[in-house]
Amino acid sequence: MRSDQCLESLLAELRPSVLGTLVRRHGQFDGCEDAVQEALVSAATQWPAEGIPDNPRAWLLTVAGRRLTDYWRSDQARRTREITVASMALPEASVAPAPDDEDLVSADDDTLMLLFLCCHPALTPSSQVALTLRAVGGLTTEEIARAFLVPQTSMSRRISRAKQQIKDAGMTFHMPPERERPDRTRAVLHVLYLIFNEGYTATAGPDLLRPDLTAEAIRLTRQAHRALPDNGEVTGLLALMLLTEARSPARTLADGTLVPIAEQDRSRWNGDLAEEGLALVVEALARPGVGHYRLQAAIAAVHVETPDGGETDWPQILALYDLLEQTAPGSVVRLNRAVAMAMVKGPREGLRLLEPLEQDRWMTGSHRLSAVRAYLLEMDGDLDGAREAYRTAARQAASGPEKRFLTEQAERVGAALGDRAR
């Protein structure tokens, strides 16, 4: 990795804990975010020439703290001359932490608290995602808007509203009470999961993958795992992301054509990510309880462990989906379970499981239901039905690569029909 990439990675890793510490100390989310951004710019300018400090986090806290104090002083001078600057200033020790400051051993805690704040239940899921990417991930408003294919002005308003809601609700920066932590942790994991999924299979646009989003989701989930190492679901989510990301290099051809998992060149999979993910699955399943991220990670592990050219253990995958449907029932789980059922008991059994989803308003408009139906109809020998279902799925798909793939499948099945007629 080049030195500039190393520096960029270091600053990205330090950003959330520095912002978290500053917000915990002083409040004023907006002001702290601006101060941290200025400190990061200073670091990016000075460190290449002067060298990285022995304690880069303390350096950033010092510079950001001073920027914040300067802001308070100028703002106070504008608003009133009756209150002295000294009454606004914080003790120097708070602004410039020493290396043995307690903050230096709570970086992961501060990152976690910042995630809790950005994923507060008072915010909508879309606002949680946007604010997490902006405040914790450090993405610009333009980058976030581009990732979710919305105008920058709309995304800017969404983030501003989220910050205002935090301010109006008087949300404080501290660990939530013990009774609230499970729900708050679930909200954090859900947001990280959404970010990863959007990066791994973009809902719309010309590209299938958004590596910047998957990388950011993995980085933030690693930090959550460091802060909550005993939480099986946090470990499971990290394992799921790593095992899924390990397959990314083989998911598309050079021209962007989508490659189904059964046809992927497994030698192109990232072995290091796969190995780390498999170890985390073992760790996650050893924790008490059963959770849907752990179960999804276990399913991903079965796929990854299948040798190149070997038979996937579909009975094990079906058993895991049976348990997942009991633990976290939902349309997507039922859709994936139908595929596993078809692989174990035949396509008609899988098609039977699809029938209730026809009444699901969200699923009937999704290309995924039509694509799975097409696949199972083709397995069952109904090529006419499969071709029409592939065509429907292609019309419904908003992602360019998925639309092209489904169109090609419809044409392939059409060609097979022509051969059969001859």
Helix-strand pattern: HHHHHHHHHHHHHHHHHHHHH
Q: How many strand elements?
A: 0
Shape: elongated
Contiguous uncertain segments of 5+ residues: 80-105
**Gyration radius over CA:** 25 Å
Average of pLDDT: 84
Query: Structural class, from secondary structure content?
Result: mainly alpha
Multimeric status of the protein:
single chain
Q: Please state roughly what percent of the residues sit in beta strands, choosing from under 5%, 5-15%, 15-25%, 25-35%, 35-45% or over 45%.
A: under 5%
- Main sheet makeup: none
How does this model look, in words?
The protein has 422 residues and is mainly alpha-helical. The chain contains 21 helices and no strands. Helix 17 packs antiparallel against helix 19. It is elongated and about 80 Å long. About 6% of the residues have low confidence.
Brief summary of the model shown:
This protein is 70% helix and 0% strand. With 422 residues, the protein is an all-alpha fold. Helix 8 crosses helix 9 and helix 14 packs antiparallel against helix 15.
Topology of this protein?
Blueprint: H1 3-26, H2 29-50, H3 56-79, H4 85-88, H5 92-95, H6 107-118, H7 125-136, H8 141-147, H9 152-168, H10 181-200, H11 211-227, H12 232-245, H13 271-285, H14 292-305, H15 314-327, H16 331-345, H17 347-354, H18 361-364, H19 367-379, H20 383-396, H21 400-421
Helix pairs in contact: 1-2, 1-3, 1-6, 2-3, 6-7, 6-11, 7-9, 7-10, 8-9, 10-11, 10-12, 11-12, 12-13, 12-14, 13-14, 14-15, 15-16, 16-17, 17-19, 19-20, 20-21
